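General statements about sequence and structure are easier to judge against a single worked case. Part of our work consisted of pairing the sequence of a single chain with a tokenised description of its backbone. The amino acid sequence and the backbone structure tokens for this protein are reproduced below.

***
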Amino acid sequence: MIDPVILGRRLHDLRADRGLALSALAKEAGVSVSMLSAIERGEKTPTVVVLSRIADGLGLSLSRLLADLETDRVIVRRAAEQDHVAEPGGWHRTVLTPVVPGVNFEWIRTTLPARCDAGTFPAYAPGSHEFVAVESGTLHLGVGDTEYALTAGDSLYFPADARHSYANRGAEPCVYHVAALIMRPRKTG
């Protein structure tokens, strides 16, 4: 397991060694200054995607950034430690998985309120994968130019190197899970 305080100190030291202000690294990494500051203070445990962005901002690979930080091979992430993110439009994400060095995997539980469109997301790099399973409601999942309607119990896999979208067009909330293996940062456009 990676101690968030030790990770934070490491990030701070790497940033200082490069002569980067907190705001400069935040901009380079595409994360907020407040998020980066909280990570450096050991108050927040970043997701794999956020860590990968920070590593890129520092000019390092994720594995190099996390080298020698792992203290235990079993990582437990308690419910109270999970990241809960309220998104614009009223939808909500909970990142269920712990950060594992060298593994770009996340398991996310998302709730879309009635008639909520979470938007379209750009493609990840080739070799990325997403598995989606619907817990309740109906999810309209777009992959490229095709849309799939998934109901409770349905699941779908797609290579995540295509733009994709999530929407709930029904009158009831939709809850679904995404298990994602992300190889590198998203492509733009």
The radius of gyration is 17 Å. The beta strands are 83-86, 92-95, 105-112, 116-121, 129-136, 138-143, 146-151, 155-159, 164-168, 174-181.
